[in-house]
Amino acid sequence: MSTTEQAHNDQAGPPAPPPSTLLGGPTSTAPAGGPAGVLGSTLLRNLLVTVVCVAVMMGLTTVLGPFQNFQLAYVLAYLSALIGLNVLIGLNGQLSLGHGAIMAVGGYSMGFTQNAMVDAGYVDNRAFALWWTVVVSLTVGVLAAIVAGLLIGLAAARLRGPYLAGVTLAVAVLVPGITTAFDVFNGDQGIRVSVPRRPPALAKVLGPSFTNEQWQAWVALFAVGLVGLLMANLIRSRYGRMFKAVRDDEVAAQLSGINVARTQITAFVVSSATAGLAGGVFVFLVKNSQPGFFSLTLSLYLVLALVLGGLGSIAGAIWGALFLVAVPYLTAQLSRGLHVPPDLELRLSGNLPLAIFGLALILVTIIAPGGIQALVRRIWAWLYGLVRRPAG
Amino acid sequence: MDRFIFLTVDGLSKGAVYAAFALSLVLIWRAARIVNFSQGAIAVAAAYMAYSVTMHTGGNYWLGFGAAIVGGLVLGVVVERTTMRFVGHERPLDSVIVALGVVLIIQAVLGFIYGNEFLPAAAPFSRTSMRIGGYAVWSPYDLYVYAAVAVLVSFLAYLFAKTKLGLRLRASAFAPEVSRLLGVNVGRMTTLGWALAAAAGALAAMLVLPTELGLHPNAMDLVFVTAFTGAVLGGLDSPQGAVIGGLAVGLILNYVTGYAHNPNLAQPAVLAVLLVVLLVRPGGLFSSATARQV
Question: Is residue A329 part of a domain?
Answer without folding.
Answer: yes
